[in-house]
Amino acid sequence: KKEKKARTPRPSGLPAGFEICNKLDRTMSWFVNFAWNFGVLLAAIFMMAGDTSVITTILLIVSFVMIVLNVVVLPFKTGRNLGQFVARIKYVNSSGEKSSPFQGMLSNSVGILALFGLLFVTVSTSKFGDKDAGAGPIIWTTIGAIFLILYIVNWQFAKASQYNQGLYDVMFGAYLVKHVPEKGEKASGFWAKFESMGDYGDKFAAKREARRVAKEQQAEEAANEPETETSDEEKDKPKEKAKPKAKAKAKAKKK
Question: What SS3 class is residue 214?
């Protein structure tokens, strides 16, 4: 019988040489992605109340294309979305390589699906009891509830994880780390523009760090200023009683 080859153990944990991204990087990435994914969509929703059906339809199509580009195309092509380019962060696995594109797509779509899930639940529950609607409201409410539950579960995983890993991060063994370009790694053409967006994120982070340092220096200077109040010893001393006014001079001696 042929001897079975010993399997090399798969690496686990945070790979060496990588640093988990901080809260500022995550916040910056979230704001950029939110503005890109929902900016045009929210404008189209607000315009639905007016007589702009053609413009609204065009905006809805544009917003759908923007979401697909950021959630599907970019993660499959580069492993990062627009917000991660600006914040200079990326997903890697335990081997230090680019994580699965499916993991990036699922992790990046949790918030979007939760928003659509809330919309499905809000709209569908209002149609309960409508005989003409049939089983549609129940189906869409169930789908929306699943999206919301996935968002809550993902948030609980990230809250309990040492490395802030969500549900899909744990399933695929992925870590959101700071992106450090390797030697000879250069983007060209259209993708180089996305890579250059990290300069804006670096400038924003540098300004915020400078403000934080300035505030700390001001607080230290305020604490080191000499106190004008009386010292503790002077406070503890009993106050001297006010001297009584000098009595009026004795009357002139009797003659």
Answer: helix
Residues 6 or more apart whose CB falls under 8 angstroms from that of 124 comprise: 136, 137, 138, 140, 141, 144
Cβ-count burial 82-108 (b if 16+ within 10 Å, e if not): bbbbbbbbbbbbbeeebbbbebbbbbb
> For tokens 């250059």, what's the residue?
196
- Collapse the DSSP code of 175 into the 3-class scheme (helix H, G, I; strand E, B; otherwise coil) and give the result: strand
Report the C-alpha gap between 94 and 14 in whole angstroms.
Answer: 6
| Residue 173 near residue 12, CB atoms below 8 Å | yes
The residue with tokens 């300035």 is 214
Can you spell out the DSSP letters for 177-209? Answer: EE--PPTT----THHHHHHHTHHHHHHHHHHHH
Nearby residues of 56 by Cβ (< 8 Å), 6 or more positions away: 44, 47, 48
91 strand-pairing partners? 176
State pTM to two decimals: 0.67
Summarize pLDDT for 150-186 with one digit per residue, the tens: 999 999 998 888 888 889 988 888 888 887 766 555 5
132-146, 182-196, 219-233: which is most confident: 132-146
Cβ atoms < 10 Å from Cβ of 133: 13
CB 108 within 8 A of CB 71: yes
pLDDT tens profile 46-103: 777 666 666 778 888 888 898 888 888 888 888 888 888 888 888 988 888 888 888 8
